[in-house]
Write a structure and sequence with these properties.
- The structure is a single chain.
- The protein has about 350 residues and is of the alpha+beta class.
- The chain is about 30% helix and about 20% strand.
- It is built from eight helices and 19 strands.
- The protein has a seven-stranded mixed beta sheet with strand order 1-12-9-16-19-17-18, with helices on both faces. The chain has a three-stranded antiparallel beta sheet with strand order 2-7-8.
- Strand 14 (about 195) and strand 15 (about 200) form a beta hairpin.
- It is globular and about 50 Å long.
- The two termini are about 30 Å apart.
Length: about 350
């Protein structure tokens, strides 16, 4: 399915609001709160202020991403520029403000609205592929006595990434999609097998046929979009021995300078984020060529192939299962994409 933004009108009729400029609002985390849910409870889009929230509250976050129940957190000072402006002379009169927005059912009811952040990626085309899907769940693990599958988590991160890229004006093709999942905030994502390949093709059971189908779809779209700036991002979750904890790895085609630059830009972004948010933890992820991988070898757009962790390792499961972490992964990848396009 192809997605791009369009102009929408959002009308909000509110009474006069007064915001104190000399102090920031604080909130107390309750058991079960995550960063996203805590911010959302304050009526704020968590994707707009996630990084600022983390920066303001670094000393009260466990592992730089987890809230501690009972602790007080500072909310970023948010300018509500999408709220209707109240005329100071005639309180009854409301001015409707036009903003750039769009609604996409693929993201689910809670997350369907995409509000424009910028046009930094306008005209660019991105193909996003989440690993496995359909009859193949990919790598499997166990958490709290329940089975968890690679394809569900790779897909959730891919949807979050798609939304981030679209908010910057990109034209995004989600190659593997599940129309009834949407972005999900649960730790254990229910396993199903109803994913299809763009636009609505049944995914083959045979591995080679499944990979070839994806390659053909991407290469056909690449041909259709000839002349545009095009990139491909593939997201997977690894499966190794339970005691092997891995960082995020990025692969590219050995002969693709643009693919190498994309993978390196995302890798640099992750390194910088770890240094900022987890200064006591060494980031050991790498970027390297991996032409032996079928999608890396056969697809035409410059691409980055991402392994986000080991689904069987308990430490990596924290990164994969926590919805706040999945959002952070998607946001960091999108920032790497911006770095790749705009340069340093």
């Amino acid at each position: 399915m192809k997605y791009s933004k369009f102009t929408g009108i959002i009308c909000m009729f509110l009474s006069l609001f007064c915001f104190g400029q000399d102090s920031l609002k604080t909130v107390t985390a309750e058991p079960g709160d995550g960063i996203l849910s805590l911010i959302r409870k304050q009526g704020v889009d968590p994707y707009e202020v996630f990084d600022e929230f983390v920066t303001l509250n670094m000393e009260n976050l466990r592992d730089s991403v987890h809230l501690i129940a009972g602790r007080t957190y500072v909310m970023p000072d948010v300018k509500l520029d999408t709220v209707a402006i109240v005329d100071s002379l005639q309180i009854q009169a409301k001015e409707v403000k036009e903003i750039e927005s769009a609604s996409y059912a693929i993201f689910g009811e809670k997350y369907k609205t995409v509000i424009e952040k910028s046009e930094r990626l306008k005209g660019n085309v991105y193909y996003l592929v989440s690993g496995h899907g359909g009859p193949d769940p990919g790598a499997m693990g166990m958490y709290a006595g329940k089975a968890i599958a690679e394809d569900e988590y790779a897909y959730d991160i891919t949807l979050r990434l798609a939304k981030e890229l679209m908010a910057h004006g990109a034209e995004v093709y989600i190659i593997i999609k599940d129309e009834n999942d949407g972005i999900r905030d649960e730790r254990v994502l229910e396993i199903d097998h109803d994913e299809v390949a763009y636009p609505d093709k049944t995914i083959p059971l045979n591995q080679l046929a499944r990979l070839k189908q994806r390659v053909d779809i991407i290469n056909d779209l690449y041909k259709d979009n000839r002349g545009k700036y095009q990139r491909l991002i593939v997201t997977h979750v690894d499966s190794r021995s339970e005691n092997q904890n891995i960082d995020v790895f990025f692969y590219h085609h050995e002969k693709s300078k643009n693919g190498e630059k994309l993978a390196e830009s995302i890798h640099k972004t992750f390194g910088a984020k770890y240094k900022k948010y987890q200064p006591n933890r060494t980031y050991s992820g790498t970027f390297e060529d991996r032409t032996s991988l079928y999608l890396v070898k056969k697809t035409h757009p410059a691409m980055a192939y991402i392994e986000i962790g080991n689904i069987r390792n308990k430490k990596d499961q924290v990164r994969i299962l926590d919805p706040d972490n999945r959002q952070a992964l998607a946001k960091w990848i999108s920032e790497g994409v911006l770095l790749d396009f705009e340069g340093e």
